Amino acid sequence: MQNDEGQPSQSIHHIVYCSQAVQHMDKDALEQIIVTARHHNPRFGITGLLVFGSGIFFQWLEGPRDNVTSLFKIISADPRHSDVVLLTKEDEFRERLFPNWDMELVAAEDISAVLEDAMHEASDPKQKNTLSKMLLELHKSPLGK
Questions:
Q1: How confident is the model at residue 69 (pLDDT cuts 50, 70, 90)?
Q2: How, if at all, do strands 47-53 and 56-63 pair?
Q3: Distances (CA, A) of 76 to 25, 31, 53, 70, 131
Q4: Is residue 142 part of a domain?
Q5: CATH value at residue 74
Q6: What's the pLDDT tens digit per position in 71-130?
Q7: CA distance 13 to 60
Q8: 144 occurs within a structural domain
Q9: Helix or strand run (H / E) with residue 118
């Protein structure tokens, strides 16, 4: 929906984060995350993108502010991952970037580039440290080579 000036007429809130998966994350656990998201997120107007590779989650969530914020709190407390780093959060008047929920398995070098960019952009020393640790783990793992 657009206003009289042709601009999107509703605010979209988005949150982007990354995290480290627990050691025992397997294909079944990933599938359960997707099934749960596909069931619940549309009811709350939440769309986005979830990328998983080499033990790292990277997710973009967008939708109504309260719903996205509540979902991020739930995700942050989820024991299937640790070291959750909030990369960005913002309200914008625009169309959704990811109108359909999607998940993609990516190569380690792609995750590495995302983490390196995030580390260079981060202003919080704790976030920089956590992202640095994720990169070190990524480069040590067999998938990262």
A1: very high
A2: antiparallel
A3: 16, 19, 19, 10, 16
A4: no
A5: 3.30.70.100
A6: 999 999 999 999 999 988 989 887 887 777 766 566 666 778 877 888 887 777 877 887
A7: 10
A8: no
A9: helix 108-121
Q: Do the Cβ atoms of 106 and 87 come closer than 8 Å?
A: no
pLDDT band at 144 (very low <50, low <70, confident <90, very high): very low
In a domain, 55, yes or no: yes
Question: Domain tally for the chain?
Answer: 1
Q: Please tell me the pTM assigned to this model.
A: 0.73
Which domain does 48 fall in, by range?
11-105
Where b means 16+ CB within 10 Å and e means fewer, 12-42 reads bbbbbbbbbbeeebeeeebeebeeebeeebe
